[in-house]
Amino acid sequence: MQKWEYATVPLLVHATKQILDNWGEDGWELVAVVPGPNTEQLVAYLKRPRQSEGDR
């Protein structure tokens, strides 16, 4: 069965694409973007397959 690891990342409005591209290069897949604690900020939820102990 596939196991996942997750991350939450604050997104800056002026750098959203760059932030998501950087995380995507590391194998993270965007799951959702939701409003953050204030109107100026968004929060991205990401996931990627978790490596088994033997793959590390």
Q: Describe it for me?
A:
The two termini are 18 Å apart. A three-stranded antiparallel sheet has the order 1-3-2, covered by helices on one side. It is built from one helix and three strands; from the N terminus they run βαββ. The radius of gyration is 13 Å and the shape is elongated. The protein has one domain. The model has no long low-confidence stretch (mean pLDDT 91). Helices cover 18% and strands 45% of the residues. With 56 residues, the chain is α+β, with helices and mostly antiparallel strands. A hairpin with a 5-residue loop joins strand 2 and strand 3. The longest helix has 10 residues.
Number of strands: 3
Distance between the termini: 18 Å
| Largest sheet, spatial ordering of strands | 1-3-2
Number of contiguous helices? 1
Cα shape: elongated
Give, in order, the helices and strands: EHEE
Tell me the count of domains.
1
Mean pLDDT, rounded to whole units? 91
- Beta-strand percent range: 35-45%
The structural class is alpha+beta
Instruction: State the share of residues found in helices, binned by percent.
Output: 10-25%
How would you sum up the major sheet?
3 strands, antiparallel
How large, in whole angstroms, is the Cα Rg? 13 Å
Which parts are unreliable, with pLDDT below 50 for 5 consecutive residues or more?
none
Protein name: DUF4177 domain-containing protein
